[in-house]
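Hello forum,

I keep getting stuck at the same step: I have a sequence, I want structure tokens, and every attempt I make locally crashes halfway through. Rather than fight my setup again tonight, could one of you with a working pipeline run this one for me? It's a single chain of 206 residues.
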Amino acid sequence: MILFMFSAAVFANISISNSVQKDTISGIIYVDQEDHIYIEVKHPVHQIFTFRGDTLLLYYPDDRKAFLFSEFNPMELPVSRALLGSGKEFDLSTYGFRFLKKKSKGDTTLSYWKKEEGGTVVLKNLKDKLIEILILHNGKEVGKTTYSDYREGKGLHIPSRIHSQINTKNGILTEDVTFTDVQFLDAFPDSLKHIKIPEDVEVKGW
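Reply #2:
Ran it on my machine without issues. Output:
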């Protein structure tokens, strides 16, 4: 399963904040065209995420704990949702959605996708850049994500700011993802492709 059609790797500092948690999560990420994703959270808790294929390894170096998640949906990672904006084609069929229709007006294109048991997702593109995702339920907007401040390099364009909001019974929940110091690399660092967990650390499967 190919998530990102990259010809290079991308590095950035990442900051995530939302309306529920007071602390801002900060760290670094690497991602490449072969679905290697490495995220190291440095604040507030030191943790390392490595993703390959459909397997996620979560490692807490300070607490000496590790967890392995099989059949993990990569779209649950904020960076994966953010990097949807890097591609020119957006195929959501991998995630159980069925393509409905496409509408174009000038430089703006709307693509409609529907899940068999769930709502409708509308992808809004301005030329070749994804600028908004709408989530509809029974025709009513229940969530929205906007992409802005694109950074470009090596033929790629990456949104450095992503703002999401979800309507709930208790109000509107918001989340902001910010990438800084975005660098376009020739390759994903070999040292990060296969993180070795110390032998005395038990890896629990989920």
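The longest strand covers residues 171-185. If your local run keeps crashing, start a new thread with the error log.
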